[in-house]
Write a structure and sequence with these properties.
The chain is mainly α. It has helices at 10-14, 32-35, 48-56, 60-104, 136-143, 178-201, 205-216, 220-238, 269-279, and strands spanning 119-124, 152-154, 167-169, 172-176, 262-267. This is Tat pathway signal sequence.
Length: 297
Amino acid sequence: MPSIFHKPSARHASASDDDMPYSPVERQDMTFDDENKPLSGGYNGSSSTDRGHMEGGMGTHELYALNRSLRRNNLLLKVLVGLVAVLLVIRMFFDGRGVYKEWKGEKGKPKTPVPEIGFRRTMFEKNEIYSSRPTPETDKAWDDLLPPGRGFVFVSDWKKYDLPAGEETPWGTIYSVAVFHQMHCLGQLRRFTWLFLDSIVKNDTEVQESVRHMFTKLDHADHLHHCFDYLRQTIQCGGDMSLEWPRTEADGRRFAVDGWGIPHQCRNWDAIMEYMDKNHFNNSMVAEIAPLVGSSG
C-alpha cells in the first residue's frame, strides 16, 4: 500500500536557510544578537532610503516592540496548537477504545441459548457415499446429516437473549441453526449438479424440461444463487487455517493437495447433535436435506 506521507522533494530537502523567505512569524532561527541588533540608521546594511522611511514611519523602538510582540504571539500560537494536538490524540485514543468496546459488546459475547460447543481434533478422510451420484443409499446418508426438525430449534424465552423474533408456530418460536442451513444449501447444490449432468450426458429431454421448469417457473435458481453466496461467507467465517500437504502419487511424486489425511480443529459434532436432540422442532413435515417439492427455500 502506498505511503500516505509525502516525501520531500530534493529541492526542499537540500534548500538552505538563505533560500527560504523570511517572515517574522515563520522564521525562528534568529539568534539573540540578531533580535537585539539596532534597527536605526547606524546599521551599516541600511540605505539612506531605508533610514528615511523609518524616520518618516515607525521608529526603532516601535519596530522592535512589534517584532517582539510577533515573536511572543507566534510562540503562544505554537503552544496552543500543540495542546490541541495532544487533546485530539487523547480523544481519538478513548474514542477508539469505545468503538472497540461497542464492537466486542460490553458484556463480551452476545447472549445465546446455545451452549458453548467445544473443539476436537478431526482427520479429514475421503468418504465416497457423500460424493457418489444420488441413490436411495447416498440420499439417505445426506438426509441423515440433518437432525429431526431439519435444523430448527425451539427457543421459548428468546427475549432474554440478543435475538430478534423468530418464526412463530402453533407450538412455539423456532430458529434455524446455521450449520444445518449450510448443510441444506450444500445438499441443494449436490442435487442440481447431478440433475444437470444427467440431463446433458444422457440427453434426457424429460429431465431437461423438468430442470427448465424449476429454474424458470419456480424459485430454485434464486435459491441456488443464494446458496453460493451463503456458503462463501460460511467458509470465510470459519477461516480454517489448517496446513495441508500434497498426497503421495503411485510413482512417489508429491504435487497435488486433495485435503485427505489432514487434521483439523473442528466443533464437536456429537455435542452439536446432542443440543439439537434436546431442542429440535418436532413438527417438520419434510425430512429431506434438499427437497424439490413445495417451497424451495
